[in-house]
């Protein structure tokens, strides 16, 4: 029977599904000294935020697949896995709505000074309301960098608030963006110069580091 190593907890139902076809090794129940040694003996590794290095991949003779319980695979050495013929898989739509909603929450929090005002109200300082002018989002410009699944969900959310959207993504077509009301620009500087709010939704890799 194949062995699947879980670096972190996942939902109990997910564990049951895996246990129906494989021996599941729960990494969080192991000591630090044997954690990665046991992982290297398995046929598959499922991670959340743990890092899968090229060194681990090199020293895992039975490893056939690395799964990401989420979207981004920046914590997996994909190049090393590919060189060894190890498949890397993820769940590309697992939390796209949650991430977009979280981004919207952060935008609203900043625009309305929620954290600061909440703190002051808890201290009984109600005079602060005369010292701050919050940003009204209607009519403002939002710059979205990365117009993939998450970016496009956020576009719809911000448009519903009356915001104008400009976007940057070298992998999408201008005509497709025009149909949904996004003004696509070809220069990142235009995003930062023209936007009242900027939200970034791109994978972390060598081409996006800077």
TrEMBL record:
SUPFAM superfamilies: Formate/glycerate dehydrogenase catalytic domain-like, NAD(P)-binding Rossmann-fold domains. One of its GO terms (molecular function) is phosphoglycerate dehydrogenase activity. Pfam families: 2-Hacid_dh. Its EC number is 1.1.1.95. One of its GO terms (biological process) is amino acid biosynthetic process. Keywords: Amino-acid biosynthesis, NAD, Oxidoreductase. It is an enzyme of class 1 (oxidoreductase). Residues 4-192 form the D-isomer specific 2-hydroxyacid dehydrogenase catalytic domain. Transmembrane segments: none annotated. Belongs to the D-isomer specific 2-hydroxyacid dehydrogenase family. This is D-3-phosphoglycerate dehydrogenase. The lineage of its organism: Bacteria, Bacillati, Bacillota, Clostridia, Thermoanaerobacterales.
